[in-house]
Amino acid sequence: MRFTINTKHHSANDSYFSKISLTLSVFGELSTQSTTLQMTVTSQK
């Protein structure tokens, strides 16, 4: 998992968008893992 956090700017907007992109990164990673898991389970049947 890669997280890019910009610490040079501390405005409210940057903090807000950082949280959004971090959340999207986490959800994207989770959905990728669950898809891989489903494919693995299916291939074992």
Notable characteristics:
single chain, 73% helix, rod-shaped
Q: What is the number of helical segments per DSSP (H or I, 4+ residues)?
A: 1
Please trace the helix and strand order, writing H or E for each element. H
Tally the beta strands: 0
The 3D shape can be described as: rod-shaped
Radius of gyration: 16 Å
For the biggest sheet, the summary is: none
| Strand percentage | under 5%
Mean pLDDT: 75
**Helix content class:** over 70%
Terminal residue distance: 29 Å
Low-confidence stretches: none
Helix vs. strand class: mainly alpha
Write structural notes for this entry.
There is one protein chain. The protein has one helix spanning 12-44. It is mostly helical. The radius of gyration is 16 Å and the shape is rod-shaped. The chain starts with 11 loop residues before the first helix and ends with a helix. The mean pLDDT is 75.
Summarize the structure.
The protein is mainly α and 45 residues long.
Secondary structure: elements and pairs:
Elements lengths: L11 H33 L1
